[in-house]
Amino acid sequence: MRMRQSLADWEKAFVKEISLDRYRRDSLRRTAERREAKRQAYKRQKQGSLRFLALVFTLILTAAIVTVIMFRTLYLLLG
Fold it and tell me: What is the pLDDT of residue 3?
């Protein structure tokens, strides 16, 4: 009887350890998924900022080039 009780205790402890291990693995997986989502969001935001800066730079450069060409043309026509 004592041997059966001991085996039953071992089995209960084993089942408990398995469930704790599953919980830990799920928790680690969820944590890793959250970290990856944060990294992707940060990367998207950084790329968006760089694209916006490139757009602003392009617009300013275009305006400057058009202004220079316009004044040169005006100088050639009037001069």
Answer: 67
Cα separations in angstroms, 39 against 13, 29, 33, 63, 64: 39, 15, 10, 36, 37
pLDDT tens digits, residue range 24-48? 999 999 999 999 999 999 999 999 9
Separation CA 31–CA 25 (nearest Å): 10
Q: Where are the alpha helices (DSSP H) in the chain?
A: 2-78
pLDDT value of position 1: 58
Residue 35 in tokens: 């970290």
- Please give the model's pTM, rounded to 2 decimal places: 0.61
* DSSP category for residue 1: -
How does DSSP classify residue 55?
H
- Please count the residues of the chain: 79
